[in-house]
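A reminder from the course coordinator: this example appears on the midterm review sheet, so study it carefully.

Given structure:
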């Protein structure tokens, strides 16, 4: 991959900087770009003197316009990252997502890396292998908000020329936490690699990729990511014992075990597991 513009020269905004993935990226991207501007509702812990933090509520368009002003690219992690009541999802992910892309357009931001989620396609059965062209099959209100974010990203890419990489993140941890995560796990370094592809790949226009390491049990065809130069180094099976220990601590979940989204599918489930899901 040859960067169109020297990466160092880029000014990058990181939303959701106080969250788990935000904290990891904030450390791993330090020094990689001319500016790494951090934003969240509350300040991240342990903010260094050399770090810039600008508070903003994503539901407030004027505030979002202020944080995007003057940046070249945005890594959008902000919003709700698990299932919640509709009001919370609507405010942070639907209204917040719209505000982020609209502010990016108004301020001529060139790129957005959008943190989508495996829960946009969580209701596919585990015996299926899906690519990024399979229709969305959300497993939660949260998953619906991520599918909405991907659609919004496509609109802003196709109509307004934004370059966008949507990463359907599996689960980012040092080691896969249970058996489901053996299929969807991504190591922190592999996620950094994908984020940097989104920030720097010269011919990126709009793409959805899976945020997964090189997992033998993967349910996903990640050809789109490989085409962009992604070469994952993590392998979930190297941590099999750790995942099995974690699994042994979980309650049985026969419905969740049928579908990729696991507990996000079984929560509130009232359908027929034989006929539902993709
Ligand atoms: C997600 O999208 C969540 O943000 C994360 O907290 C995990 O629940 C992950 O999915 C998962 O599916 O393990």
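Designed residues:
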């Amino acid at each position: 991959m040859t960067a169109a513009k020297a990466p160092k020269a880029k000014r990058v905004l990181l939303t959701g900087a106080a969250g788990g993935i935000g904290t990891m990226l904030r450390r791993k991207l330090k020094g990689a770009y001319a500016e790494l501007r951090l934003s969240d509702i509350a300040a991240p812990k342990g903010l260094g003197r050399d770090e810039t933090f600008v508070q903003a509520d994503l539901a407030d368009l004027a505030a979002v316009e202020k944080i995007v002003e003057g940046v070249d690219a945005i890594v959008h992690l902000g919003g709700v990252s698990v299932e919640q009541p509709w009001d919370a999802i609507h405010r942070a992910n639907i209204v917040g997502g719209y505000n982020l892309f609209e502010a990016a357009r108004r301020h001529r931001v060139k790129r957005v890396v959008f943190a989508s989620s495996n829960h946009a396609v969580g209701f596919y059965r585990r015996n299926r292998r899906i690519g990024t062209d399979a229709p969305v099959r959300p497993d939660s209100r949260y998953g619906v908000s991520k599918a909405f974010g991907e659609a919004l990203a496509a609109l802003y890419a196709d109509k307004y020329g934004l370059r966008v990489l949507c990463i359907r993140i599996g689960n980012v941890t040092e080691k896969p936490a249970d058996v489901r995560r053996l299929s969807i796990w991504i190591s922190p370094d592999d996620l950094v690699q994908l984020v940097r592809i989104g920030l720097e790949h010269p011919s990126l226009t709009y793409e959805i990729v899976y945020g997964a390491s090189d997992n033998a049990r993967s349910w996903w065809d990640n050809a789109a990511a490989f085409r962009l130069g992604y070469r994952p180094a993590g392998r979930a099976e190297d941590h099999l014992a750790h995942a099995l220990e974690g699994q042994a601590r979980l309650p049985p979940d026969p419905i969740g075990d049928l579908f990729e989204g696991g507990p996000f599918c079984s929560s509130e489930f009232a359908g027929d597991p034989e006929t539902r899901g993709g």
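The mean pLDDT is 96. Residues 81-82, 117-119, 171 surround D-galactaro-1,5-lactone (CB under 6 Å).
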